[in-house]
Amino acid sequence: MRILLAEDDVSLRRGLHQVLKAAGHQISIAEDGSHADTLLEGEEFDLVVLDLGLPRMDGLTVLERLRRRNRNWPVLIISARDRTSDRVRGLNIGADDYLTKPFELSEFEARVRALLRRGQGAETQIGDLLWSWTTRLASVRQAPLIITAQETVILESLIQQHGKIVTKTALAGAVGGEDSVDVDNLVEVNIYRLRKKLAEAGVEIRNVRGVGYIIQESNEAL
Q: Is CATH 3.10.20.310 the classification given to domain 2-119?
């Protein structure tokens, strides 16, 4: 997913960038509101992470200008402003979620995943595989697909980037194994199991050697 990260605090920005990159996202950085506004006017994004206390143009103004241009990308506000009135104002202007600093990176990750799922729509279908973004459940021809928690996370990551290559590092990060000494095996075992379970759904998880994996319909050209 393409994400704009608009944050002027260098240390926090670096940490959030690492988290998003580990999840396999493409990140554009804006260190001030004016730069963020320019990027939002000229480029396409799947999610905007927006600090309110930006220099040169505050985050609420950036958000107002974004919504006036009828851009409906999900927006996650991150701010040290913790008054109820600030949260209400941000949500009323058009933010989809509001996270008060300081926060745990795990909560940030969860908020990002939830907003990206919301942006996908209610369901995604690939071949006979149907994925619900609301329930995070998969089915094949109306029959539930029985998969483990790790398989669910990997399948969700692949479907989220349907038609695009997802790196092995990104998949390992999604299941919390990026620091494991056996990362390759962790991903490969789950991919192997998913392939077997998806065989009757007309869906393939293809290995792009040296790059990662891509999920497609079985008859779809790479």
A: no
